[in-house]
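Cross-posting from the modeling subforum.

Setting up a comparison between two proteins and wanted a second pair of eyes on the formatting. Protein 1 (sequence, then structure tokens):
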Amino acid sequence: MTRRRQQLEQLTILGLMIAMILIMTYIPNLGYIQTGILSVTIIHLPVIIGILATGPLGGLVLGTTWGLTSWHYATTLGTAEAAIFVNPMVSIVPRILVGLIVAYSALGLRKLIKPKPLRYGIVAGLGALSNTVLVLSAIFAFASAGLVTFNQAVSFILAFVISVNGSLEILSAVILVPIVMVAIDKVRTRS
């Protein structure tokens, strides 16, 4: 594949993933699924896939896009949960870091783990886990004043919801990202 064709492919993938981020953000219950007390995020899937297909610059672009759309969406909702994400330190910065973590962990694991599906699964798991950890850390560091109390009941409920949400997000990434990436790799080898 020529350098120009590779650049065009990466630009096309970035455009498609940005479009998917926008669609999944603004169509209710598509990228951020609300089910009673659970709020499961699946918008990380196109972000991780796009990063694996485009590299560190794609990670920066897609992480920033995800953060900005997350912030903007929170400003339009007006709910207590969304109010936490109006703070850019909670909505934007962690998503940018997730983009970079995914990109550089993919590069770092390239020589260590040869089977691509396994490597994609591990990187996807790291991406979903880093999103959960970074966003929750940012909430507690920058946005929890007056919104989260640490008595035993609330701590138990938060731990349960976080563990269920985080587990579902990691599981979906570990299963779906390798499937999509293997398909993308097959298309690339045919070109």
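Protein 2 (same layout):
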Amino acid sequence: MKKVLVVDDSLSVARQLEKIINESGEFTCVGHAKNGAEAIKMNHLENPDIICMDMNMPGMDGLTALRSLVVLDKEVKVVMVTSLGGVGDKFTEALKLGAKNVISKPFESENVLQILREL
């Protein structure tokens, strides 16, 4: 099973995503970080196969963390998570910085799993 780290400052959003991941039988959630700084630490500790990271978080946001993660590990697989409203330029920037894809909230289980399977 592939290991997934969930990074989101909203506990309810993180729980939704963790439920989809853990119930899939293909992936397992190895942890939850509340911001980009925690994500960088937990990536080092847990060595996940995939990181699902919110773009907008207090402290260190997802794009800043993505920049750091790619510098630390060129092979890192990050999927950005965003609400439908705030995509636009940030979506393009995330992909340029090295994100593999973007998952939109609210989550559709099959869509989330399909994106994760492609990595």
